[in-house]
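Late entry, evening session. Most of the bench is empty. Finally got around to the prediction I had been postponing all week. Sequence below, unchanged from the version circulated by S.P.
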Amino acid sequence: MARTVAELPPGMRVTDHISLGVLGMTFPLEQVQAILYESGKASVRERDLPADLMVYYVIAMSLYMQVSYGEVLRCLQEGIKWFPSLGKPVRTAGKSGISQARTRLGVEPIRLLHDRSVRPLASRKTPGAWYRKWKTVSLDGSTLDVADTDENEAAFGRPKASRGKSGYPKIRFVSLVENGTHVLFDSRMGSYGVQEITLAQEVVGHLQKGMLCLADRNFFGYPLWKQAAETGADLLWRLKINNVRRKEKQLSDGSYLSTIYPTEKAQRHNKDGIRVRVIEYRLEGQPDAEPIYRLITTILDAKAAPAEELAALYHERWEIETAFDELKTHLRGAKIVLRSKSPALVKQEFFGLMLAHFMIRNLMHQAAKSVNLDADKLSFVHAVRIVRRKIPKTNPFPPSA
């Protein structure tokens, strides 16, 4: 879908629908300025578009993917008068000035803000976040279309098409999702040609003891399994249908113990094996079901996690598909591409998009917690609409800041 300059209906201003409040509450100005100083991106002289403002601008871009650069900037001006880094109101800059300010900012401050702010939110009281003693998370990947420029195509590539080439270059990313809150965290991105397993190697190291990570069959392999298991987290991953495991010990719940090895040679010499538990089941009465489903887990004690419960739990992995749909359809917009024309700004925009999704999910989590409600009962679409309006009346950047 070609990008054109978007206009609001006559008489309506974007500034009537957003303030800096929700941004400032989720990503405090003090934190933003500390990251800018650490990354060497703090504004050293007075500018029309200072670095701290541009951090919030990058996040706001993802709230208004169908709105022009200038309109997004005007969104933020409502709270600018309290910015301590500014001695005068910010003038609305043109597209070129905004792009230059984004280029000065770079990707590093946005990535650091993402890595330090986007985190699991669920407490023990969060409905749907736990299976027995484990907090459930899922691992998966997806793709996003980016602006069709020669630079982006060279950096990221594009899928093959039956005739010619596909419409847009793409980036690939892999994330963990907290199932109970739909928070996408520890995301990593790369070019379209990078395999999900390669990106997953950068992601699974952020698993923690007390988590139970669910993953689809495309992720299983000895190196990634070993890396993920060494974090102390427990794993429940699906195997491909042709990956048949040797049954070494039958357990009372129908599951059995087996061992995985890095190579066939290691298996012959019984070297570097990792003990796993295998769960096999069928979905009766489902016309599109596969003949058999096979899961492996690090939880070897059948009493601690019965096979029937784990088989049912695995299908909660689809929570990450819901989170991806929120990100790609309801926040970004269906058939809307990331607007940045250069690879560096694409990376910056990607992390801004992930920060915007976290901001909304954090608000939904806080709202659900205040009334002891499952966050799944709240509408993400409705939450996005609220964030786009002026929900906080109190300015988060008072003069005393």
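Two things to note before I forget:
The longest strand covers residues 134-145.
The two ends are 43 Å apart (CA to CA).
Will write this up properly tomorrow.
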